[in-house]
């Protein structure tokens, strides 16, 4: 039991440290600066004129770690945040799956629709428009390759847009007339996500026997 308590205490401390990084944008910025990822625009092929797909963009199950690692058709557990036993269920999902889905999270449907509309509006822009807000080689925010790209051996068929702090400068480049409206959506979404992240972290710690007062 003593060993189990020490193990739980170490794990709790690790989770608290991770929580601090997640909630502290400056700490996260330092991590991103240490691992820069950018789009090698000069090496991008012209997909409109290609007759054969470059090997760097040809994915197999060996290249897709997420696909090859799972032989099951099961989905991650869905957890209702209003469930009286939510902490236990969430803790079980973390130890068995490492991932979970949530329902009754309290984020307004209207806001989810807004953030989806914003995302679609951004990625539907012509490439030359998106490049106006491209992430610099040592930068953090802006348009570029998804940050998970470094975990794969192949070039990803996707793009990403990182927002750290205010997106005002980047959004002004993309939407000179409507950037304030989109900034307001991001700000509201960030506020809800921070509250939700804090709640999930407290529940995860609660499943380990750590009380909320111990976090503060």
TrEMBL record:
Key words of the record: Dioxygenase, Iron, Metal-binding, Oxidoreductase
GO molecular function annotation: dioxygenase activity; metal ion binding
Protein origin, superkingdom: Eukaryota
SUPFAM superfamilies reported for this sequence: Clavaminate synthase-like
Keyword Metal-binding: yes
Pfam families: DIOX_N (PF14226)
Protein name: Gibberellin 3-beta-dioxygenase 2
Species, as recorded: Noccaea caerulescens
